[in-house]
C-alpha cells in the first residue's frame, strides 16, 4: 500500500505548516479549516481530500515563497496536482488543479466575490491572470472537476479564521488511505 505517500505529505505539511504566505492563519490552519468546511458541507470524501491537499504545491520548490516574495506565480495548483496524480484519482486531483482557475471564474461570474478575497488571494489573482473573460469562463465550466473546484474554492476562501479549533491532520489519514490508487 502507498501509505508512505501520506506520511510524506503529512511531513511536508508539518515542516512548512507554520508559514503564513500573507494570510492571517498558518498554512496548516488553512488546509485543516478548508477540509473541515468540506466535511461540514457534506462534500464527498474525494472533495474533502482535495480541500486538505489543495495547497501541497505551495511547498514544492518554494512555490508559495516565490509568489509572496518575488511576485511570481509558481502555479502551485499545477505542481500540487502533478505531485498527487500518481496516488489519488482525478476526483481528488482535478479540483486541486482547478482551484485557482475557479477563483478567476468566480471573480467574473459572481458579483461581489472579488471584494471578499483576502489580501493574499487578491494579490495572487493578479499574478494568476485576473478574472476570466467570457471564453475562459465557458472553457473552465466544460472541464472535468470544475464544479468541485468551485466548491473547493469556497472552502479555500473561508478557511482563514483565526483561533478556530478543527480536527488535526492525523484525523484525515483513514480518508486519504481509502482514496489511494491501488
Quick overview of this protein structure:
By secondary structure, the protein is an all-alpha fold.
Question: Can you characterise this structure?
Answer:
This is Phosphonate degradation HD-domain oxygenase. The structure is a single chain. The mean pLDDT is 90. The protein has a single domain (3-179), classed as Hypothetical protein af1432 (Orthogonal Bundle). Helix 2 (27-40) packs antiparallel against helix 3, helix 3 (45-53) crosses helix 9 (146-158) and helix 6 (90-109) packs antiparallel against helix 8 (134-141). It has ten helices and no strands. With 182 residues, the protein is an all-alpha fold. The termini are close together.
Amino acid at each position: 500500500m502507498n501509505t508512505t505517500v501520506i506520511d510524506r505529505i503529512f511531513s511536508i505539511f508539518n515542516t512548512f505548516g507554520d508559514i503564513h504566505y500573507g494570510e492571517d492563519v498558518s498554512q496548516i490552519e488553512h488546509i485543516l479549516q478548508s477540509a473541515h468546511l468540506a466535511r461540514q458541507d457534506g462534500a464527498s470524501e474525494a472533495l474533502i481530500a482535495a480541500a486538505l491537499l489543495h495547497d501541497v504545491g505551495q511547498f514544492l520548490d518554494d512555490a508559495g515563497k516565490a509568489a509572496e516574495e518575488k511576485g511570481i506565480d509558481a502555479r502551485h495548483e499545477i505542481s500540487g496536482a502533478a505531485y498527487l496524480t500518481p496516488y489519488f484519482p482525478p476526483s481528488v486531483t482535478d479540483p486541486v488543479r482547478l482551484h485557482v482557475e475557479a477563483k478567476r471564474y468566480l471573480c467574473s461570474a459572481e458579483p461581489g466575490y472579488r471584494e471578499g478575497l483576502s489580501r493574499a488571494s487578491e494579490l495572487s489573482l493578479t499574478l494568476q491572470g485576473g478574472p476570466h473573460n467570457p471564453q475562459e469562463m465557458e472553457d473552465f465550466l466544460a472541464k472535468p472537476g470544475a464544479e468541485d473546484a468551485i466548491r473547493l474554492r469556497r472552502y479555500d476562501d473561508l478557511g482563514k479564521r483565526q483561533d478556530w479549533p478543527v480536527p488535526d491532520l492525523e484525523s484525515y489519514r483513514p480518508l486519504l488511505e481509502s482514496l489511494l490508487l491501488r
